[in-house]
Design brief:
The protein is mainly α and about 200 residues long. It has a domain at about 80-190. The chain has 8 helices and no strands. It has helices at about 40-55, 60-65, 85-95, 95-105, 120-130, 135-150, 155-165, 165-190. α4 (about 95-105) packs across α5, α6 crosses α7 and α6 runs parallel beside α8. The longest helix is centred in the last third of the chain and has 27 residues, at about 165-190. The protein is globular, with a radius of gyration of 36 Å. The model is unreliable at about 5-15 and about 20-35 (pLDDT under 50).
Length: about 200
């Protein structure tokens, strides 16, 4: 019998296919849960609600209210609404912006710090205008101006002005509040730097 031939088996190296790289994970940006910087101010909403409730609680008292006899006259005329022209055009096109600006000066900051043109009061005025109730916040704001600066007028005049001369009313209120607040700041600054009595020093001989 012939001797069997020893056959050497050659190991074939099979190259492994390159591994596919896993796709890079894309970070999904979920909705932000941080506070929104929208125009809605809940403090403003509560303020308007409280003021409306006060009026509704005693309507006859508010309607018949008027300024005291010692009240001053308005510095700006109701029919001077064409000057300045930029305020006139803004009020004609966007009366809600002018109304919100005056409200910020009266109720928040006389120097207009933190003011934004689109704010809660602006949107509220726009909504009330859509249902022909804009004269309510306008007459309330005019009453605020009379009370703050001791100006002449009455609630009935405020309502009539808001209903019949709305744009003139807005311009007059904005100009009057701006001028009066500037006077208040100047007088406060003068009192702050006024030397106290007995603090003057005589020059040395």
């Amino acid at each position: 019998m012939a001797a069997p031939f020893e056959q050497t088996q050659q190991q074939q190296q099979v190259a492994a296919p390159p591994q596919e790289k896993a796709p890079a994970a894309v970070a999904a940006s979920g909705p932000s849960n941080g506070p929104s910087n929208g125009p809605i101010d809940h403090a403003d909403i509560e303020d308007w609600k409280n003021r409306l409730n006060e009026v509704l609680a005693k309507p006859s008292e508010h309607v018949n209210s008027k300024s005291p006899a010692t009240a001053q006259s308005w510095t700006n005329s109701l029919f001077g609404c064409f000057s300045p022209i930029d305020l006139c055009c803004m009020t004609w096109c966007l009366p809600c912006v002018t109304f919100g600006k005056t409200h910020h000066r009266l109720r928040k900051n006389g120097s207009m710090e933190g003011y934004e043109p689109i704010n809660t009061t602006c949107l509220m005025f726009c909504a009330s205008s859509c249902v022909a109730l804009h004269w309510i916040p306008m007459s309330m704001q005019r009453a605020d101006i009379r009370s703050r600066y001791n100006l002449a007028g009455s609630c009935l005049v405020d309502i009539a002005t808001a209903c019949c001369c709305g744009l003139c009313d807005l311009v007059q209120a904005e100009k009057e509040s701006e001028q009066r607040e500037a006077l208040l700041r100047n007088s406060a600054g003068a009192q702050q730097y006024q030397p106290a009595e007995g603090m003057s020093y005589a020059p040395n001989a």
